[in-house]
Write a structure and sequence with these properties.
This protein has 106 residues and is mainly α. The chain has 4 helices and no strands. The N and C termini lie far apart (60 Å).
């Protein structure tokens, strides 16, 4: 956070805005928590864990105004939807749907 959310004054790192006196301690803690959640999400994406990344990106979105978060969230969701389980037939049978046979298909 570079500016006070109340008066837009540049912040100098203290816990209170020098211009309007707004208490910034909790806002700064939320900002740090959002940064930490974003870093964890990026690590999850790098490890190939898109669903785990989505969880951390949802948290980062709630805590941070970083414009990278919605972009990464869309990417992570697209990755987690494109992952097909190795035995997707078992998943479809569980839902009462029999997988199509590929035998005899042209």
């Amino acid at each position: 956070m570079d500016r006070c959310p109340n008066c837009r004054a540049r912040l100098d790192g203290s816990d209170q805005c020098r211009r309007c006196g707004l208490e910034l301690k909790l806002l700064q803690a939320a900002d740090r928590a959002g940064d930490a959640a974003l870093a964890r999400a990026i690590r999850r994406l790098a490890d190939g864990d898109a669903p785990g990344a989505v969880r951390y990106l949802e948290r980062a979105r709630a805590l941070s105004g970083d414009p990278l978060v919605p972009l990464l969230l869309a990417f992570a969701r697209s990755q987690s939807c494109s992952e097909i389980p190795a035995d997707h037939g078992a998943a479809t049978r569980h839902r009462g749907i029999e997988p199509r046979s590929t035998e005899g298909a042209a």
